[in-house]
Amino acid sequence: MARIGILILAAGASTRLGQPKQLLFYQGKPLIRQMAEVAIASNCQPVGVVLGAHAEAIKPHLSNLDIHIFYNENWSRGMASSIQCGLREMLRVSVELDAIVLMVCDQPFVSPDLIHKLIAGYRDLNYPIVASEYAGILGVPALFHKTFFPELLTLQGDVGAKSIIRQHHSHSLSIPFNQGIIDLDTPQDLQFLS
């Protein structure tokens, strides 16, 4: 069986929202814990969470979970630094990692079922990149085979994995995830949590 890990990117400062989005309550718990529990329920191992801004406030909400917490000292440089930090640490935790699923902490409607569909596209249909499709774009959650790890490790600035998906569009499978368009960036977005 291929060893597939999950990396949750949760290091941002949530400046547009005005409060740490990781700690917004959803289904009776902080969003970051909800996302970690979804990752665990997918049965992928290992599960890693990258923290940065507000790490001390967030970390207690991840206690007693079978996950690895990584701290990105360079979180203010953007998403790419969190992908690099998290992927390097995941490869230390599990040198035999065959693929990784990248998630962000502010897509509240990600489910274990969606993650299973990404994995099925990889295992059953042999696609090296399997991405979620919403609003006409391919994005996260997305699975990347280890052949793309070097590219993920060279991303710069506030560039996420979407750029790699775009570059390798012909090798990418899309999984419909209409609710993926809902992420929590501004106070107006909070209506989707109610």
From TrEMBL:
The protein's organism comes out as Floridaenema aerugineum BLCC-F46
Q: Does the keyword Transferase apply?
A: yes
This chain's protein is named: NTP transferase domain-containing protein
Task: Respond yes or no to whether keyword Transferase is given for this record.
Answer: yes
Keyword vocabulary terms for this entry: Transferase
Query: CDD domains, per this entry?
Result: GT_2_like_f
What is any Pfam family matched here? NTP_transf_3
Name the Gene3D superfamilies on file. Spore Coat Polysaccharide Biosynthesis Protein SpsA, Chain A
SUPFAM superfamilies, per the entry:
Nucleotide-diphospho-sugar transferases
The residues covered by the MobA-like NTP transferase domain are 7-169
Gene Ontology molecular function terms on file: transferase activity
